[in-house]
Design brief:
two-stranded antiparallel sheet, Non-ribosomal Peptide Synthetase Peptidyl Carrier Protein, Chain A, 11 strands, 2 domains, 42% helix, TIM Barrel, 13 helices, alpha/beta
């Protein structure tokens, strides 16, 4: 699969952009385990235009994590165009437009998936962003949903219109905005878009991919060009290794044992601290640390330490204690990648 000049190979696996999750340290972990393309956390166009420090910080990307996409969101065309220019200035492989985020504070004011209620505006915004970024040679892509609600699933029509507006690839999450993240993702419409002979750009499927078998089905049954993985990566960056191995060999890898998970969590923690300083790095890791050990018995007191301790040396000692106490525990029955 190619997006612009970037060749991601056959059946690529992409890390979804997720607020407060896909920061540089987590992107590095997923890259280590074979993710074919990274995305930044989604970035507010208003924040970029106002030179807000938090938004500008999200533009930081390194050569080691490439290929990488910078994703922006907003509900006004002019700030989005300016934000796209700013995103392109850091030379990512793609500038991605977020038309998919369902959370109320974003969609409720017309950004993210809220734009699906205004398809004409969505297409015009996309057209102007493509035009603004075109001189840089960086392709523009879009991530969106099936529609606003069950009665307005307009993704098949929108895919063609967005393609005509100049995007280089389209990622589709298999839910409507009204569904949020409830119920099962509907891949049939994603497959219908891919099967449409009018759609020539790559179609990337997203939604509920949490196992190698599901990823294989997405490619073989629904014909998508790439698979994007989001929530299943929480505490499980090795999912990319699992899926790639299965797609290549047909064999399922065993789940990493506790000792390996401790080493992965340690590496992630140290990278987070390197990127954000001790306090910021530790706070950022809280959402990840307990997820690495989902499924361990009698783990609640230790989990509490992992998500409350601020001292780095003590956190490392807690991680060592996890390896010492549960090192022989069979993780094959654990439910991976889910919040407690």
């Amino acid at each position: 699969m190619k997006i612009g000049k970037t060749d991601l190979g056959e059946r690529p696996l992409l890390l979804a952009p997720m607020e407060d999750v896909t920061d540089p340290s987590f992107r590095a972990m997923c890259k280590d385990f074979g993710a074919d393309m990274m995305y930044t956390e989604f970035i507010s166009s208003d924040g970029l235009v106002r030179d807000a420090a938090k938004s500008l910080a999200k533009l930081a990307i390194s050569d080691e994590e490439r290929p990488v996409g910078v994703q922006i969101y907003g509900h006004l065309i002019e700030p989005m165009v300016e934000a796209a220019r700013m995103a392109a200035s850091v030379r990512p492989e793609v500038v991605d437009i977020n038309f998919g985020c369902p959370v109320k504070k974003i969609a409720g004011r017309g950004a993210g998936s809220g734009m699906m209620r205004e398809p004409d505006k969505m297409v015009e915004m996309t057209r102007q962003i493509v035009r603004a970024v075109e001189p840089t040679g960086i392709p523009v892509t879009v991530k969106t949903r099936l529609g606003w609600d069950e009665e307005s699933k307009n993704i098949e029509e929108l895919a063609v219109r967005l393609q005509d507006a100049g995007i280089a690839a389209l990622t589709i999450h298999g839910r409507t905005r009204a569904q949020m993240y409830k119920g099962e993702a509907d891949w049939t419409l994603i497959g219908a878009v891919r099967a449409n002979p009018l759609v020539k750009i790559p179609i990337i499927g997203n939604g509920d991919i949490s196992s190698p078998l599901q990823a294989r089905e997405a490619f073989e049954k629904y014909g998508v060009d790439g698979v994007m993985i989001g929530r299943a990566t929480y505490g499980r960056p090795w999912i990319f290794r699992e899926i790639r191995h299965f797609l290549t060999t047909g064999e399922l890898l065993p789940q990493p044992g506790v000792v390996e998970r401790v080493e992965i969590a340690r590496r992630h923690l140290l990278r987070s601290i390197e990127a954000k300083g001790e306090k910021g790095g530790v706070l950022e890791m809280r959402r990840h640390l307990s997820c690495y050990f989902k499924g361990l018995p009698d783990f609640k007191p230790t989990r509490l330490k992992l998500v409350t301790e601020l001292d780095v040396a003590e956190l490392l000692r807690v991680l060592d204690s996890v390896a010492e106490r549960w090192g022989d525990y069979d993780m094959s029955a654990a439910v991976p990648g889910l919040w407690s």
